[in-house]
């Protein structure tokens, strides 16, 4: 129930993605360090140089202090977040967990959810195709979508029911076959239309429409955003809290996920 996009990736990124998750078990919450607001510029420079060396070839996007003293969260461009030592001589791929009184807390996924929420909130409203809730808006979902994937089409048929039950559906574009593909042109045509809702619906209903790819359309930018946030196929549904749900869900299932039952 998920339409995937396949594309070549740098060897090092594929190797990183294949590494099994590492779980740090911490006896008590008090043993966790508090992440600093900033990182010493000298440490950040060292990590960028070390991981970006020709024999490694990782492009560092950002460096932040982690919750575990001695390790730094290093975001890799078009790759995962890794946990590196100050020297950059060692790093781990996977999620950091806290063992608290209420059980395990996946700090890595918590950070990804916050990042998704912030990134989606930064998208200009004029670049989103919105199907508003009927009456009071009780919740919303943001969906990275393509027009040609079967499960995107199936999810779109659930939109009227979601709207009826107070859920706003907000679409961002994710052409699975990449920039310049037929899906890209159809998505651009929907975003460039005077009636974006109707045009997007028509394409998802497999109607043949004349393409209208206008200059300045946001499809490539939204595709890049989806890749940055970990979208690997469509539909990819993001909740208000930033949780990503891959694949199709019925209106009833989404209502339950959103806590509206």
TrEMBL record:
Name of one Pfam family that matches: Thioredoxin_2
Stretches assigned to the Thioredoxin-like fold domain: 134-258
Keyword vocabulary terms for this entry: Disulfide bond, Periplasm, Redox-active center, Signal
Subcellular location per the Swiss-Prot or TrEMBL entry: Periplasm
Sequence ranges assigned to domain Disulphide bond isomerase DsbC/G N-terminal in this UniProt record: 39-100
InterPro entries for the chain: DiS-bond_Isoase_DsbC/G (IPR033954), DiS-bond_isomerase_DsbC/G_N (IPR018950), DiS-bond_isomerase_DsbC/G_N_sf (IPR009094), Thiol:disulfide_interchange (IPR051470), Thioredoxin-like_fold (IPR012336), Thioredoxin-like_sf (IPR036249)
Chief location of this protein within or outside the cell: periplasm
Family of the protein in this entry: Belongs to the thioredoxin family. DsbC subfamily.
Function noted in UniProt: Required for disulfide bond formation in some periplasmic proteins. Acts by transferring its disulfide bond to other proteins and is reduced in the process.
Protein name: Thiol:disulfide interchange protein
């Amino acid at each position: 129930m998920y339409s995937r996009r396949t594309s070549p990736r740098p060897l090092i990124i594929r190797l990183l993605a294949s590494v099994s998750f590492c779980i740090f078990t911490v006896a008590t919450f008090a043993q966790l360090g508090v992440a600093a607001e900033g990182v010493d510029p000298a440490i950040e420079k060292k990590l960028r140089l070390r991981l970006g060396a020709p024999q490694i070839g990782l492009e560092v996007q950002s460096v932040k202090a982690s919750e575990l003293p001695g390790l730094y969260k290093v975001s890799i461009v078009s790759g995962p977040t890794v946990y590196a030592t100050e020297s950059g001589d060692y790093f781990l791929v996977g999620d950091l967990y806290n063992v608290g009184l209420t059980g395990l807390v996946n700090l890595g996924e918590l950070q990804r959810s916050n990042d998704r929420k912030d990134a989606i909130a930064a998208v200009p409203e004029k670049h989103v195709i919105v199907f508003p809730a009927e009456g009071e808006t009780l919740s919303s979902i943001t969906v990275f979508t393509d027009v040609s994937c079967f499960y995107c089409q199936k999810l779109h048929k659930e939109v009227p029911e979601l709207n009826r039950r107070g859920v706003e559906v907000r679409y961002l574009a994710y052409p699975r076959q990449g920039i310049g593909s037929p899906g890209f042109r159809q998505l651009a045509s929907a975003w460039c239309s005077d009636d974006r809702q109707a045009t997007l619906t028509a394409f998802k209903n497999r109607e043949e429409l004349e393409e209208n790819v206008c200059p300045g359309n946001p499809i490539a930018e939204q595709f890049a955003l989806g890749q940055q946030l970990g979208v690997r196929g469509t539909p990819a549904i993001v909740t208000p809290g930033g949780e990503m749900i891959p694949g199709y869900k019925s209106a009833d299932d989404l209502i339950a996920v959103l806590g509206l039952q």
